[in-house]
Amino acid sequence: MIRRGIPLLALGLLAGCAGLPPAAPLDRDSIRDFALEARFALRATLSGQPPQSANGRLSWAHTGQRDRVLLASPLGYGLAEIDITPQRSTLRTGDGQEKESSDPEELMATATGLPLPVSRLPAWLLGRSGSAATIEPDALGRPGRLTESGWQVDYAYDNDRAAALPARLTIVRPGEVELKLRIEEWRETP
After folding, report:
1. What is the mean pLDDT of residues 134-162?
2. Which CATH number describes the domain made up of 26-188?
3. I need a surface site. Which of 9, 37, 69, 132 has the fewest CB within 10 A?
4. Domain boundaries defined on the chain
């Protein structure tokens, strides 16, 4: 009796899952708070040193004025955790070191030697600019290239929806830093 019941139970569960409607795609123009999962490749050329490269996984949660970024090796080992709030930014490394600063860009430059604009990145991920930025649209009117304060962000999409979120970003400060992101999942956070 139990042997015959297990396949029926499995079929029932599968049928229930098949009946769920697909989640509606997120709309780039209306999303405010988000979480994403991505792979990254970073290449840096620091003055007087040979180019350095790193790659791995990135989990980013942006809620209000708080950002939490988790960096991991390609195999999932924790490399660093970055918490950013308007009052305080904290960087915790995988080896247990912790650094704090009231300026997130200063914290990143001190900790990594790289001038990463972490406070601008949430807006750039969504294709939004600051007051000094210019955005060139792609053929569908979506952000194609953003230029701001010596940085260039190029966007690529996995579909033709006008309000699609980007799937790939290349963030470059010429001659210094190139950060490539392949976003595997976007989620809206409450």
Report:
1. 96
2. 2.50.20.10
3. 132
4. 26-188
DSSP three-state, residue 26? coil
CA distance 139 to 141: 6
DSSP-derived 3-state class of residue 43: strand
Q: Please state, in angstroms and rounded to a whole number, the distance separating the CA atoms of residues 137 and 17.
A: 39
Q: Give the alpha-carbon dihedral of 49, 51, 54, 59, to 10 degrees.
A: 90
Q: Where are the beta strands (DSSP E) in the chain?
A: 34-44, 52-63, 66-72, 78-84, 89-93, 98-101, 134-137, 143-148, 151-156, 168-173, 177-188
pLDDT in tens, 18-67: 444 456 678 888 899 999 999 999 999 877 788 889 999 999 999 999 99
User: What letter does residue 159 receive in the DSSP assignment?
Assistant: S
Q: For the CA atoms of 88, 94, 97, 100, what is the dihedral angle to 10 degrees?
A: -10
C-alpha to C-alpha distance for 155 and 138, rounded to whole angstroms: 9
Start-to-end Cα distance in the chain: 45
Check if the beta carbon of residue 140 is closer than 8 Å to that of residue 162: yes
Is residue 37 a contact partner of residue 59, using CB atoms and an 8 Å limit? yes
Q: Which of 52, 56, 25 is CA-nearest to residue 40?
A: 56
Alpha carbon distance 124, 179 (integer Å):
13
87-96 average pLDDT score:
91
